[in-house]
Amino acid sequence: MERPTSTVTGTALVFEGGGMRASYTSGLLVALLEEGLHLDWVGGISAGSSNTANYVSRDPWRARHSFTDFVTDPRFGDWRTFVRGQGLFNARYIYEETGLPGQALPFDWDTFTADPAQVRIGAFNATRGEPVYWGREDLARLEDLMVRVRASSTMPVVMPPVTIDGEVFVDGALGPSGGIPLDAAVADGYERFLVVLTQPRSYVKPPPARSGLRYLRQHFRRFPAVVEALGRRHKAYAATRERLWELERAGAAHLFVPESMPVGNGTRDVARLRASHEAGLVQARRELPALREFLGVG
After folding, report:
1. Residue of 195, 162, 152 lying closest to 42 (CA atoms)
2. Which position among 149, 150, 212, 222 has the lowest Cβ density within 10 Å, counted as fewest Cβ atoms?
3. Coil, helix or strand for 118?
4. How does pLDDT run across 53-79, given as a tens digit for each residue?
5. Which one, of 221, 128, 136, lies nearest residue 166 by Cα?
6. Residue 1 CB contacts under 8 Å (≥ 6 apart), including other chains
């Protein structure tokens, strides 16, 4: 196999999370791969970590299928798996089993490891009450990658927390970026960004309901930092988006922002998810000339 190379340097590719809303943003991923646009830094949180892994493995089929047809898999998860403690999304199966050879979503580990891009996957350490970004140094095996993608995607309550090296992790959206790993790219020295968002420009994240916080305090009594992070996430998210608008105005960021979002983070209707992916792909292809100009490959 010819060793993959980066075709775009000096710009970070940042994927927001959002559960099944990634059906839309995976359309942008597919368009980038179609155009041979391989950036040299890629980071994601939650569903964005799946987009990150699929992009670096250069697999448009897996990128699409993960957030569309895969919901029809009988082991995807439902209330029965939730009652059994496996999560409303059957997380161990989705992330740690399906990527293995011969399984539902086989992962191209050889291409992922050969790609030169720097990789960051964000999660929230519930034990320490702090964010973490894993990189190549943490990803020696496929199992190391997939358990971290699972941890990054572990929505509180809906999915069981993940233990790695004796510490407990939940969804990376609880970190100070609010679920958009711009901070990781900045920390790695990047000043230009292609940011893939999963909410329209008009979206404003509401604060959590007081009743919800009361329940969460009981549910996460061993991990109070999780509740504190959930309580302030809407402010962190708003601050990161405001920073992105500023970077866009300054010409330092190109933002892929859904023109509308036809699905929610828990949508299971495969027809709606397919339509969402197609809408994202159509928007991405339409915006490619401006994107290529921003990346300097016009």
Report:
1. 195
2. 222
3. strand
4. 999 999 999 999 999 999 999 999 887
5. 128
6. 110, 111, 114
